[in-house]
Amino acid sequence: MSSGRPKPSLKLGAEEREELSGFAASRSLPHALVSRAKLLLWSGDGVSNTEIAARLDWSKATVGKWRQRFIDLRIQGLYDELRPGRPRTISDEKVASLLRRTLKSQPPAGTHWSVRRAAQANRLSKSTVHRVFQTFALQPHRTKAFKLSNDPFFVEKVRDIVGLYLNPPDHAIVLAVDEKSQIQALSRTQPVLPMGLGYVEGVTHDYVRHGTTTLFAALDIATGTVFTDCKARHRHQEFLAFLKRIDSAVPAPLDVHLVGDNYATHKHAKVRAWLAQRPRFQVHYTPTYSSWLNQVERWFGLITQQAIRRGSFRSVRELIRRIDEFVQHYNRCSRPFVWTATADSIFQKLTRLCSCISGTKH
User: Fold this and answer.
1) What class, spelled out in words, does domain 154-195+202-343 have in CATH?
2) pLDDT single digits (tens) 237-282
3) Are the C-beta atoms of 270 and 236 separated by less than 8 Å?
4) Distance CA 78, CA 65 (A)
5) Which residues pair with 172 in a beta bridge?
């Protein structure tokens, strides 16, 4: 028989559930507030305090506290209580004015506000403006690049490729294929200064070029292993030679699904003819301006960050050797990238983006 007081029932209204779902999905709100919103959504679905505590790695007492706070105060109960300390020296109106000016206007003869400019324009201290920017996750000094696809078959292609990632076909291998072209073999003109306690690694800004190579790669989405080849150029001849190596490496009984972009060499007449003669090969092209759908692009980011960008290579041969060493080490402990986005969630995000930029000047 269970002991202890029964917990009071928690019922969420439609508006409350919608607001809590927004909190739980946020990437900018404080982590504690996001966790409390998840707690209440789970509790509203009938999940026990014990299970919620395990999911959040909290104590059952803490779960019960925030659950009761919501029952007593509703949404307002999610926020921390005011703590004793010096009274605020800046009013809500001042904060709102600062935020409004930062979001809706530009400084004279400038493209964005800095902490100092905003402090001077709003007659506030730099530390106050800095705290407000941090509190509201406001970063006027940063930008984020994007490019909307104009592909008329965008929806169909997204559903096709995401379906491959989330539900790969049986008796088949799915390979994300692309090339990283013009990788330069650069050698620094002066020795690298080693990292030490209190200072970072020092690298001279100038270098000597020793040539380039193109890295062709095929990422197995099921295992995370990568099949690579370095070529001097990136024409259709090199791409076709890479496909032939894939054909010989993949066991004959398996179908081969290739995810690739719309680069001209991938659609060359000779490449299409070679693929047409091999029915087990099926190519799934990403929509225009949608390279983020190709998982091998993420792997290219890893090898660039970890082995190429900060390297110093005296020849193309040395660069290729270092690339091969990285690939061998990576494949020994490789893990697949975890793809969680559904096609519908991608479309919803793009809908929100389009609604944000609708009517803006460019």
Assistant:
1) alpha beta
2) 999 999 999 999 999 899 999 999 989 999 999 999 999 999 999 9
3) yes
4) 10
5) 255
